[in-house]
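Figure 6 in text form: structure in, sequence out.
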């Protein structure tokens, strides 16, 4: 994703995969996920600090990743939780920003622009 290959990244999701970004409704399906990424993720870089994985129900794998996201507007610690289906596709990706209330207030104009276009 750091290279801006959003369509290729979206194809890592299951056909009906779900992206759960912070502060927004879930985005469902590869095409909608690719559209969302193209609209909001330009210029984002991500750094991974650590990851853990564990088997989940129905032969699924949960992967928890800790890292940092940097955009042109802000930089913050982030957690990603991936739920992979038995085929290895992303069934669900939940993204959580680790920010203080003060920083969240500073981010509000940026987050509003992402949410409302």
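Output sequence:
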């Amino acid at each position: 994703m750091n290279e801006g290959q959003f369509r290729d990244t979206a194809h890592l999701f299951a056909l009906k995969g779900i992206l759960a970004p912070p502060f927004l409704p879930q985005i469902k399906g590869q095409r909608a996920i690719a559209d969302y990424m193209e609209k909001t993720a330009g210029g984002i870089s991500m750094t991974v600090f650590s990851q853990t994985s564990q088997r989940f129900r129905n032969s699924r794998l949960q992967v928890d990743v800790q890292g940092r996201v940097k955009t042109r507007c802000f930089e913050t610690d982030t957690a990603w939780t991936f739920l992979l289906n038995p085929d290895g596709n992303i069934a669900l990706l939940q993204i959580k920003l680790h920010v203080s209330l003060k920083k969240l207030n500073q981010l509000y104009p940026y987050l509003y622009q992402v949410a409302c276009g």
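Caption detail: The mean pLDDT is 86.
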